[in-house]
Amino acid sequence: MDQLSPDKPAATIPAQAQRVLVLQGGGALGSYQAGAYQALCHHDFEPKWIAGISIGAINAAIIAGNPREKRVGKLKEFWEMVSSASPMPWAPFVQGDHARSVFNETSAALIATFGVPGFFTPRFPPAPVWPAGSPQSQSYYDTTPLRATLERLVDFDRINNDGVRLSIGAVNVKTGNFEYFDNHKFKKLGKKIGPEHIMASGALPPGFPPVEIDGEYYWDGGIVSNTPLDYVLEHERDSDLLIFQVDLFSARGEVPATVLEAAEREKDIRYSSRTRMNTDMNKRIHDAKKAVRELIAKLPDSFKDDPLVATLNEAAKENTVTVVHLIYRSKTHEASSKDYDFSRLGMVEHWAAGERDVYTSMSHREWLNRPQSGESMVTYDLCDSELLTIKK
Fold first, then answer.
1. Is the pTM of this model over 0.70?
2. Contact in structure between 245 and 26 (CB atoms under 8 Å)
């Protein structure tokens, strides 16, 4: 897969903050995240915390579950395997957007019919034939092959004992509540992350069945929120954070002109991360903490030793957060089937796009600096080849 590695610029050194990698869900588009991670390795970005949902959870597990020198190789092994059944021999004859669209839709149709190697297979007989309540009646596909793939590519002993934090999001089917499987929290409880936790995060209904864990059933975390960014921000308010957030759906887009474009646009909006919402929320929290600190500074000395003031002082502490936001932006030939078009051609393109976006982002070395005084959160985003900076 040499075609996945463009010429590499000189490496840069990230700012001194806790490095976090945040990976959104997005099915076949997930090779964009793998390419982005490969480029981040060249720039010495060693994540201490990886959070993922759905396909982002699978990529996250492969990264966290391997030593650094094997991670990219394992990611390539996974993505080459799941794209191995696509009609690659047709690719050299695909020219122009229309032909490429036909190729993509054909590939996606074949995937929907025959499944993905090492990932999922169609049920036969199909789900409606099975008795209600049986495992086979709850989904169109069987994800048993994914368990074997995870057990082969991921060292779960490393995940449960190494220093890299792994947080995986899923939804409890009964309660509808979002839950995170976090190896740091699990270790304190004497629990361990296994293949079932990764599978639960990617169990998108009705295609995939719910996954049972400790008597509870879980579905894909993307049903509630397709990004783990809010979890990271909520659970780390002491250390400064340098976050690379790699998303697979863009919230921004054109007004659709056809029903097919409308289907794609609806999916983009539904699964895109609400990063602006998170930054706005962080801004409100920042303003409130700043007001508390200023109020405490105005209190008479007789109040300074009050236990309530000590509590407020602790609550008003805050860290700084830098988010470098990488978003895969669809090509004109892609449609709503892009997240289940596991063609080799598409996989290679998405991987290369992830690498390019990281190299472009890293050319802005100032992004890696700690936010200036008075700023609690800064988000940088490459939008249509133009720099968009959001400071909070």
1. yes
2. no
